[in-house]
Amino acid sequence: MSDATFLLFPSPQPMKFAEGDAVYVWLRSERDTGRARFLQYASDRHGEARVQVQFLCNDTTCHANPSRVIPVYLESLRHAELNTQLPLVLVTADTMSYRKLARSQTNRSDRVVEIGSSYGICTDILSQHCDSVMGLEISASLFVESQRRFPSLRFECVDVLSNSERVRTIMVNVNKVFVDIGGNRDAQSVIKILHF
C-alpha cells in the first residue's frame, strides 16, 4: 500500500502545533468532550510547559499538559496542505494508544469498521464517537462474548483474509477502518488487510 500516508502514533518526535490546529485533549472521560483547537503554548504558575486549547463543546479554554494533547491527524494533514485523498494509516504498538486513536481520530459523521474487535471494548469506544461502527472478529468465542457484552453494537464473525468478498460488501460506505491485530499476525497478513 505505497499510495498511503503512514504515521506512527505516538510520534517519536514532540508534536508542534500551530494556532487553530484541531487537537484532542486526552481526558479521563469516555465522552466526546476532548475535541479542541490549539491556541498557543503557555506555562503554568510553576513554569511547567502547557498547551492552551479551546474546547469545541462549550468554547471554554484551559491549559493542558502537552502529553495529553493529540493531533487530529487528517485535519492536520489538510492544514499542512498534504494529499488527503490518500488513505491515512496510523500505526501504534499498544492498546492504550489504539484506544486514544479511537477517541481522537473519529467524528460524528464517520462510518467505522474495526477489524480484530476482540471483546468489543474498543468497538464500544468507537460507537460513542462516530455515526456507526461494526466489529469484525475471526474468533467465534470472542465474537459471541462481544455480542453478550455489547448487545446494541454490530459484530460479525469473519476472517477478513479468507472472505474478501464479504469484507468488500461490509466496507461499502465505510470511511474509517481500525485494525487491531494484537501482535498475532505476520507483516504480510497485515499488508493484505490494508489493501481493503
Give a quick set of tags describing it.
alpha/beta; 5-stranded antiparallel β-sheet; elongated
Note the run of SSEs as H and E.
Answer: EEEEEEHEHEHEHEHEH
Radius of gyration: 18 Å
State the secondary-structure class: alpha/beta
Q: How much strand?
A: 25-35%
End-to-end Cα distance, whole Å, is 10 Å
Round the mean pLDDT to the nearest integer and report it.
83
Q: Strands across the major sheet, in which order?
A: 5-4-3-2-6
Count of individual helical segments: 6
Would you count the extended β strands for me? 11
Query: Which overall shape is indicated by the principal axes computed on the Cα atoms?
Result: elongated
- Ranges where pLDDT stays below 50 over 5 or more residues in a row are none
Any overview of this molecule?
- It is built from six helices and eleven strands.
- The mean pLDDT is 83.
- Helix 3 links the parallel strand 8 and strand 9 (132-137).
- The protein has 196 residues and is of the alpha/beta class.
- Helix content is 25%, strand content 28%.
- It has helices at 73-79, 95-104, 121-127, 140-149, 164-170, 187-194; strands at residues 5-8, 22-25, 35-43, 49-55, 61-64, 69-71, 88-91, 111-115, 132-137, 154-157, 176-179.
- The N and C termini lie close together (10 Å).
- The chain has a five-stranded antiparallel beta sheet with strand order 5-4-3-2-6.
- The radius of gyration is 18 Å and the shape is elongated.
